[in-house]
């Protein structure tokens, strides 16, 4: 597996982590056979520009840790379409026909996780906790092959932490030091993915100067973020549009 590295920012001064575009931000970081943690829930809070740049980079053999795999032709569905993802570590994959086809054909590896377990595995990875015990999944196929233990009369299954070579996340606002603010529901798996990545690249809609964001309003400190990409006008595609007559 290739080791991700981070070069100094190409623009914006010594303290700036801002890169001119998604392609430049990925240069020297992504490589074949890496493990990537990708933020988002459905199509909410996904790093659209970074995923497209990852597709264009041509890297392959990827293991993607993500709550889901987007939809056909958008989000991580783009990388499934180009066969760049070898394995998914996910919670929900029901909106992607190509995902289903590849999995049933034996072309795609899949490691299913209960959603809360997936979130905690990422959080543990970012916190340096190698493993933890949870009652979720005990006595089911989720626990097969895993250590189990009893605490105070209740049974638990041990889950290991997840650490990624690279994290790709989406935030609403960032200062040039990488302090991030997420917008409402987009604050889903993004913080946990960011902390679990050895290198984190954040795609943001608004970039401000250092010191502009009130420290009390920072959702993720810049210590976790290595590079920033400004994408002021993401598509923000609606996953399922529901309408009704008056």
UniProtKB/TrEMBL annotation:
It comes from the Bacteria. SMART domains: CoA_trans. InterPro entries: 3-oxoacid_CoA-transf_A, CoA_trans_fam_I, NagB/RpiA_transferase-like. SUPFAM superfamilies: NagB/RpiA/CoA transferase-like. Coiled coil: none annotated. Keywords: Transferase. NCBIfam families: pcaI_scoA_fam. This is Succinyl-CoA:3-ketoacid coenzyme A transferase subunit A. It comes from Novilysobacter luteus. The lineage of its organism: Bacteria, Pseudomonadati, Pseudomonadota, Gammaproteobacteria, Lysobacterales. The gene is scoA.
